[in-house]
């Protein structure tokens, strides 16, 4: 082994890849985590340390589909918060949950097996149907685990919970039984949103998830009065399919109605006076006047050939008589046409009388169809009723009533006893949305079918044939659709089990105020409004695959038993060993009637729970509360944190809040982050069919999960807003954040190895470097780190993830583009000062390690990789297997400087940037060529003092030998005075005069006095500094070809370009150094690799000879390239060549050869 290789083995830090591939790095980290069981080890440690609990609830997704960006976003938010909680001294259980019941599963099975109706399921058998459902609930669970794990999320899949588990279902039973005991549960028929495809009612918050724009028929129908069939009531509807079920017409008793004569049809109509324009919207354009006949006849006469005179006088008289008769007829026709034209200009209707709405109540009318005739006599149907829900904002002011298909219709008809509680309800539509035999030949037709033979079309044709259709149009509006089957919903009266949510409305609102929302406007606005308008919650579904509602009833309905546990069911039924609570099992279990054996046993009600009731019960179900872990649950409740998308304000967030308030009068969660919707790049909804978004796995395999995580949480979507996903955005995170951060670490490792190689001593971590170093830039970057640590702590406490990443980007920029950039030579010990090199490297090491710990929740892969690279410099006692076992660092309060340090560094950076722009933009002298002098001009003594303290950095960056700091504005600078017209407008007529004078310019003396006094007089008008913009500029009188300068408005930097031999020698030496370093880089050498460099001057021309440069600048060149350059003749025979090249330097040529270091 060579001495070079021996030295490499002894380095503290392993070299980092020059061109890192972050997805590969992440895969390697994942492999290590899996091998070492890192996540579970972190959990074991926090549990053994008895750290305080941080309770987190994970909303259960369905495993019947693959995760998308919405899931990845919510998962990233959850992962960041829970990791941060763990790393701030908490034990955080993170269990994944699965929603296994409900429509998504059943819909997939219906599609697979071609099931269309309830009868299809019953014919198949509920046991077989449920077995099919069970077989697919975890269809994509392995893919979920793979993708979620690849995202870097730490969550326990092995100790997950499933809503189909018997333990979970038993807790759901307990929840329901407790609500029943609190008199919050009732059974009743209610008009509800109903999915005919899924044959089940839906909750209001489910309906809100899927509104679509549709075109429906809009019709006005006449209803002749029973006692005066020449007068008709007019009603408007956009649901013609409900007209066969009409039993009443509703008016508003406070409206004014009118009876009008329709001048076109001669019929008399009654409708709201304010709605006349709705019916009579005919165009008033006049048709062209019809020909009177006269002109035509004259024209014909004019064009006819003259007839020969008849010799027969009788014939002539006869002809005259006929012509006269025709002329009279023509006059009559013209008169009639004129009268018809006059009639056209008349109004289409004539008001006969005005009627108060209350005077219409009780009027009977002729029913539309012959169905349900007996309802007139039995229930007083087919008459006018009244209610305030009727408005005059649309329609005719008269609303057709079909109580089985409208919530208000049902309420009003109950009020007028047309519908009686427990009595017959006109509802000729079955569970599948088909008409029944009660409506004759409409039987079997789906009420929301489309096309020319749809229910709406057929009914309209029937009405037209009966003379009852007054107007038919197309009406475009937003209409609710089933969130699962994407089919139109109907409103239908169905028997359901309800939770009386309005009963606890005030408690819900109070508990919401105890909850911290991010963004807060969601909690104060959207969610609050939803709670304030809370309605009874229908929790039952007429389905099969779900937790059965634990209610057993007698045949006569007089005995009702609500079961709250398996033990209770076993006791009541006498059946032992119940292991499964699904419908096909418990429906077979009967409970003896407590009244005696002579009564039939109680049977379970057929419904199952809505899956939202199950997910709202997850805090209890996941722990099998109250049957197990009772104390554990009660100590942790409510949860510290939850997070989901905006749609869950009417879903999971709502059901959690309702159930927890009903049970314990507490919110279910203390803190919640609400994210918005991730859209495709074109702003449209992401669609698998359209393939308008990149696959998440491909993005992670291309850029890495850390980049995706940072991209998502640094977007408006974390503020509950919509966000268009762009692949370039993820790529930008790699470029702007990940790569610079990585290269800062790589630079440290390279130069730590260089330090160890040159000094012969180890570069180890020193925690007290933060207070030991006196270097201004070290102190500044340490202060900046402290500010970042404090900021992240404050923002994470407020759950504002979206504010963290911009500050991280800013810090990475400070670290790489300011601290590392300005301290490169210092860390390389170019000037031979090993102490300063060590201080700088230890400062960078300190910052990088602290940053790894701070950002561990955000970029778990990168910080793990970096920590493993950096930790060898740590004392063995302080090293950890994973950065994720370490706590979030605290800001070092012993570091002093604060605003002064920031001011100084900002002053230095502004001067360096300005000076380099002068050198690169206005000078022909290369930046690598040193110059004699740079002059900094600024009127602020504090600014100049800051530059003085950082003089070495400025001289190094501007590559100048001398730095002059001055406030002599008269000599080196001048001021331009730009008027601010908006401010000077107050002078009115004086404004143009003052602006003109200012544009001509003021002498320097007057400007300086103006600046000192804060005010001056121009053309007789007093102005202040706030009225103008003073801009400092380089004095053109001082500038020459060899003295150039520029300004940023506040400072002036002037560069003296006059050259001498010493400066030229150093410039040429830098050219040689650059070529050696370039050859080393192209050869793949690391900075710490020591090699021999041999040279041969193949051409040495011009005034500046290479031989002189190599001789006079030998020390400088040796220090920079870490070895002495030797003449080619001294290269040993058989030396192991690494690389060679010939380069042109000035007018000369130089050959360079790198060889492996020879043993001494």
Topology:
Blueprint: H1 3-9, H2 22-36, H3 38-48, H4 69-86, E1 95-98, H5 103-113, H6 118-124, H7 126-136, H8 141-150, E2 156-162, H9 166-181, E3 185-195, E4 200-201, H10 204-207, E5 211-225, E6 228-237, E7 248-251, E8 256-262, E9 268-272, H11 276-279, H12 294-303, H13 313-344, E10 349-356, H14 374-379, E11 383-386, E12 399-401, H15 407-415, H16 455-465, E13 469-480, E14 490-499, H17 505-513, E15 516-518, H18 520-532, E16 537-538, E17 540-541, E18 551-553, E19 560-562, H19 566-573, H20 583-586, E20 603-604, E21 608-609, H21 611-616, H22 618-621, H23 630-636, E22 642-645, H24 652-664, E23 671-675, E24 678-679, H25 696-703, H26 705-713, E25 723-724, H27 727-759, H28 769-772, H29 776-797, H30 804-822, H31 824-827, H32 834-854, H33 860-870, H34 898-921, E26 931-937, H35 941-949, H36 951-958, E27 960-966, H37 969-972, E28 973-979, H38 981-984, H39 990-1000, H40 1004-1013, E29 1015-1018, E30 1021-1024, E31 1028-1034, E32 1043-1047, E33 1052-1056, H41 1061-1082, E34 1091-1099, H42 1106-1112, H43 1114-1121, E35 1125-1127, E36 1137-1145, E37 1148-1156
Parallel strand pairs: 1-2, 6-9, 7-11, 15-23, 22-23, 24-25, 26-27, 34-35
Antiparallel strand pairs: 3-4, 3-14, 5-6, 5-13, 7-12, 8-9, 8-10, 14-16, 17-21, 18-19, 18-20, 26-33, 28-31, 29-30, 32-33, 34-37, 36-37
Helix pairs in contact: 2-33, 5-7, 6-7, 17-18, 25-26, 26-27, 27-30, 27-32, 27-33, 29-30, 29-32, 29-34, 32-33, 34-35, 34-36, 41-42, 41-43
Low-confidence parts:
1-8, 283-310
Multimeric status of the protein: single chain
How many separate helices?
43
Total beta strands = 37
Q: How many angstroms does the end-to-end distance come to?
A: 14 Å
For the largest beta sheet, what order do the strands appear in spatially? 10-8-9-6-5-13
Structural class: alpha+beta
The fraction of residues in strands falls at: 15-25%
Biggest pleated sheet: 6 strands, mixed
Q: What integer is the average pLDDT?
A: 87
Helix content: 40-55%
Q: What best-fitting shape do the alpha-carbon axes yield?
A: globular
Rg, alpha carbons: 44 Å
């Amino acid at each position: 082994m060579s001495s070079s290789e021996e030295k490499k083995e002894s380095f503290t830090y392993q070299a980092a890849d020059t061109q890192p591939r972050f997805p590969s790095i992440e895969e390697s980290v994942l492999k290590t985590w899996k091998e070492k069981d890192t996540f579970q080890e972190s959990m074991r440690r926090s549990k053994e340390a008895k750290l305080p609990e941080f309770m987190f609830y994970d909303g259960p997704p369905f495993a019947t589909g693959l995760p998308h960006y919405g899931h990845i976003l919510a998962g990233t938010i959850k992962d960041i918060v829970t990791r941060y909680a763990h790393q701030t001294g908490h034990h955080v259980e993170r269990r994944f949950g699965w929603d296994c019941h409900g429509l998504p599963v059943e819909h997939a099975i219906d599609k697979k097996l071609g099931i269309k109706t309830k009868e299809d399921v019953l014919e198949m058998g509920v046991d077989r149907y449920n077995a099919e459902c069970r077989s697919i609930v975890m269809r994509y669970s392995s893919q979920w685990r793979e993708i979620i794990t690849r995202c870097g999320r730490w969550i326990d899949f092995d100790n997950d919970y499933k809503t189909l588990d018997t333990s979970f279902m038993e807790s759901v039973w307990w929840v329901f039984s407790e609500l029943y005991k609190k008199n919050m549960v009732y059974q009743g028929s209610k008009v509800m949103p109903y999915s005919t495809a899924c044959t089940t009612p839906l909750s209001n918050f489910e309906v809100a998830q899927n509104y679509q724009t549709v075109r429906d028929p809009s019709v006005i129908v006449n209803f002749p009065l029973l006692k005066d069939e020449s007068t008709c009531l007019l009603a408007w509807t956009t649901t013609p399919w409900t007209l066969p079920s009409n039993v009443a017409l509703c008016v508003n008793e406070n409206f004014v109605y009118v009876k009008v004569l329709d001048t076109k049809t001669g019929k008399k109509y009654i409708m709201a006076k304010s709605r006349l324009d709705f019916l009579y919207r005919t165009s008033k354009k006049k048709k062209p006047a019809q020909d009177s006949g006269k002109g035509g006849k004259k024209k014909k006469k004019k064009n006819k050939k003259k007839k020969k005179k008849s010799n027969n006088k009788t014939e002539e008289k006869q002809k005259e008589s006929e012509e006269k008769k025709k002329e009279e007829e023509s006059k009559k026709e013209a008169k009639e046409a004129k009268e018809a034209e006059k009639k056209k200009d008349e109004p289409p209707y004539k008001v006969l009388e005005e009627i108060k709405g209350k005077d219409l109540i009780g009027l009977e009318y002729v029913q539309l169809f012959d169905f349900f005739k007996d309802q007139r006599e039995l229930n007083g149907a087919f008459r006018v009723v009244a209610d305030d829900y009727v408005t005059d904002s649309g329609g005719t002011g008269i609303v057709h009533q079909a109580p089985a298909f409208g919530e208000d219709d049902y309420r009003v008809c109950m009020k007028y006893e047309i519908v009686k509680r427990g009595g017959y309800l006109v509802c000729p539509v079955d569970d599948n949305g088909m008409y029944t035999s009660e409506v004759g030949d409409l039987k079997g037709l789906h009420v929301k079918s489309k096309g020319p033979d749809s229910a709406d079309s057929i009914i309209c044709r029937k009405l037209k044939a009966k003379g009852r259709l007054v107007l038919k149009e197309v009406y475009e509006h937003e209409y609710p659709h089933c969130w699962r089957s994407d089919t139109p919903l109907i409103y239908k009266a169905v028997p359901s089990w309800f939770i009386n949510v309005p009963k606890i409305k005030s408690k819900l609102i109070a508990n919401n105020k105890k909850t911290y929302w991010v963004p807060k406007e969601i909690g104060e606005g959207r969610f609050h409004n939803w709670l304030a308008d809370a309605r009874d919650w229908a929790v039952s579904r007429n389905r099969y695959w779900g937790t059965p509602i634990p209610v057993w009833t007698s045949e006569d309905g007089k005995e009702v038993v609500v079961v709250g546990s398996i033990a209770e069911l076993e006791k009541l039924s006498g059946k032992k060993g119940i292991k499964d609570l699904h419908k096909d099992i418990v429906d077979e279990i009967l409970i003896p009637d407590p009244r005696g054996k002579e009564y039939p046993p109680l049977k379970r009600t057929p419904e199952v729970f809505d899956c939202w009731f199950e997910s709202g019960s997850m805090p209890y179900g996941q722990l099998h509360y109250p049957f197990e872990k009772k104390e554990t649950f009660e100590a942790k409740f409510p949860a510290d944190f939850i997070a989901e998308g905006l749609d869950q304000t009417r879903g999971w967030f709502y059901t959690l809040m309702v159930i927890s308030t009903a049970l314990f009068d507490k919110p279910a969660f203390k803190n919640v982050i609400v994210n918005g919707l991730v859209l495709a790049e074109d702003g449209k909804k992401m669609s698998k069919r359209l393939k308008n978004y990149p696959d998440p796995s491909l993005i992670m395999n291309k850029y890495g999960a850390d980049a995706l995580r940072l991209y998502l949480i640094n977007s408006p979507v974390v503020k509950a807003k919509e966000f268009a996903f762009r692949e370039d955005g993820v790529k930008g995170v790699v470029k702007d954040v990940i790569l610079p951060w990585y290269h800062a670490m790589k630079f440290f490792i390279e130069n730590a190895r260089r330090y160890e190689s040159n000094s012969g001593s180890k570069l180890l971590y020193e925690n007290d470097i933060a207070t030991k170093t006196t270097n201004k830039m070290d102190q500044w970057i340490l202060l900046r780190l402290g500010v970042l640590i404090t900021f992240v702590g404050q923002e994470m406490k407020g759950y504002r993830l979206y504010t963290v990443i911009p500050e991280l980007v800013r810090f990475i920029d400070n670290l790489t583009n300011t601290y590392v950039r300005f301290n490169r030579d210092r860390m390389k010990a170019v000037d031979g000062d090993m102490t300063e090199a060590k201080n700088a490297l230890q400062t960078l090491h300190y910052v990088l390690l602290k940053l790894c710990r701070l950002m561990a929740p955000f970029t778990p892969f990168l910080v793990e990789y970096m920590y493993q690279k950096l930790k060898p410099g740590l004392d063995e006692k302080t090293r950890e297997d994973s950065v994720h076992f370490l706590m979030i660092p605290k800001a070092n309060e012993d570091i002093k400087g604060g605003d002064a340090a920031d001011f100084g560094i900002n002053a230095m950076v502004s001067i360096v940037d300005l000076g380099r722009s002068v050198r690169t933009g206005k000078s022909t002298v290369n930046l690598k060529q040193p110059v004699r002098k740079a002059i900094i001009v600024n009127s602020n003594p504090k600014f100049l003092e800051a530059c003085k303290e950082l003089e070495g950095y400025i001289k190094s960056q501007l590559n100048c030998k001398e730095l002059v700091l001055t406030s002599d504005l008269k000599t080196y600078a001048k001021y331009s005075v730009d008027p601010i017209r908006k401010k000077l407008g107050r002078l009115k007529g004086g404004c143009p005069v003052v602006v003109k004078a200012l544009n001509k310019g003021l002498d320097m003396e007057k400007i300086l006095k103006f600046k000192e006094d804060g005010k001056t007089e121009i053309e007789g008008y007093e102005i202040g500094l706030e009225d103008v913009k003073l801009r400092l500029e380089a004095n053109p009188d001082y500038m020459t070809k060899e003295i150039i300068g520029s300004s940023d408005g506040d400072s002036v930097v002037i560069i003296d370009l006059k050259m001498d031999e010493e400066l030229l020698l150093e410039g040429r030496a830098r050219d040689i150094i650059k070529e050696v370093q370039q050859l080393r880089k192209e050869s793949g050498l690391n900075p710490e690799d020591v090699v021999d460099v041999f040279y041969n001057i193949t051409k040495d021309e011009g005034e500046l000879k290479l031989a002189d440069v190599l001789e006079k600048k030998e020390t400088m060149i040796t220090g920079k390239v870490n070895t002495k350059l030797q003449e080619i003749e001294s290269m040993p025979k058989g030396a192991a060549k690494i690389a060679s090249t010939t380069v042109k330097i000035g007018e000369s040529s130089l050959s360079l050869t790198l060889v492996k270091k020879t043993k001494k």
